[in-house]
Recover the amino acids of this structure.
């Protein structure tokens, strides 16, 4: 594991060292498992109390806490600094450029010499794979796909034909991009399949978790906007448009042709019906069942989902129901309506 002095870390973070700038740090650990020589972080008083009592030699802090025998690295945001520094101590695996002998690459595919195509990968006809791309192993890339520079696809990712990935896209194991959308029309007593002939377009700096599925459009494109982060086990249906810098948490389902704005947060297990419009900066609470358009900036919750203030009033009223029923029963008894 690489080592850094407190001063070197502070320089990278544009931070201030309180204590020994030449202190050598060789690890990063949470306070409860830190050892001498480790760096930890504290974003509030509770975290700082644990960090101060730990064996860690230095602490990333954002507030004016006393040093109390520890070397402190004061930063604007301890959590942001934490995210910036972790890759120094735990660098991502490096993959040498080249194509593994077991990979199958179509003759018309263009793979940049700086890309890595790992064991048992498949790259289809007319694909274009940019510099720094990593296909780790058992990745299937269908015909006419494009993968932008420095993107990384983990084991068993599948891209169906005509999928387009921007730069620095990360797709985790088992995810399928571009499978047929769920489109059928009822005809003469049976469900007739509507051919799904569109594509999926994923813009720069998107990360997609494991075992997520994003269906290609019936016509046109299913689109994932720049900087959006999608968790594990999410289903995004055909012709959905997700805006920029959205957060989509695990087990969310978004039905076809729904349009979601920028900076939207959808918490776990929420479901969004088809053909809806969700405005910018909307927040949907966990397990929300969304069946209506939602204007910009609102917070909704519940199933069926409603504005959070409305739903919270209803929840409070439900909590009072047992007491209210007892009072009604007592009134009826006094009035002689009940035995």
């Amino acid at each position: 594991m690489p080592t850094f002095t407190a001063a070197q870390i502070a320089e990278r973070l544009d931070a201030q060292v309180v204590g020994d700038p030449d202190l050598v740090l060789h690890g990063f650990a949470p306070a409860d498992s830190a050892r001498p020589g480790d760096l930890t972080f504290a974003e509030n008083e509770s975290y700082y109390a644990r960090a101060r009592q730990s064996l860690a030699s230095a602490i990333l802090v954002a507030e004016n806490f006393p040093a109390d025998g520890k070397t402190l690295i004061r930063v604007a945001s301890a959590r942001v600094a934490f995210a910036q520094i972790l890759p120094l101590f735990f660098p991502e695996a490096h993959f040498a450029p080249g194509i593994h002998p077991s990979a199958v690459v179509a003759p018309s595919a263009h793979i940049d010499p700086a890309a890595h195509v790992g064991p048992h990968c498949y790259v289809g006809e007319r694909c274009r794979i940019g510099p720094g791309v990593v296909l780790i192993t058992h990745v299937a890339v269908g015909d006419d796909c494009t993968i932008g520079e420095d993107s990384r696809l983990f084991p068993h990712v599948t891209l169906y034909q005509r999928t387009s990935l921007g730069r620095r896209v990360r797709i985790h194991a088992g995810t399928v991009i571009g499978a047929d959308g769920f489109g059928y029309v009822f005809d003469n007593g049976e469900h007739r399949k509507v051919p799904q002939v569109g594509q999926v377009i994923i813009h720069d700096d998107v990360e997609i978790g494991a075992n997520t599925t994003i269906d290609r459009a019936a016509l046109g494109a299913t689109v994932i906007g720049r900087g959006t982060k999608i968790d594990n086990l999410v289903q995004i249906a055909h012709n959905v448009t997700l805006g920029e810098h959205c957060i989509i948490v695990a087990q969310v389902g978004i039905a076809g042709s729904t349009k979601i704005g920028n900076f939207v947060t959808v918490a776990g297990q929420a479901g969004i019906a088809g053909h809806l419009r969700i405005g910018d900066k909307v927040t949907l609470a966990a397990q929300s069942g969304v069946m209506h358009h939602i204007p910009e900036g609102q917070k909704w919750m519940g199933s069926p989902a409603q504005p959070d203030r409305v739903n919270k009033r209803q929840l409070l009223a439900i909590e009072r129901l047992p007491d209210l029923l007892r009072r009604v029963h007592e009134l009826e008894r006094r009035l002689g309506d009940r035995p």
Q: What stands out?
A: The first helix runs from residue 6 to 13. The chain has a mean pLDDT of 94. The chain is about 15% helix and 30% strand. The chain has three domains: 4-89, 98-307, 309-339.
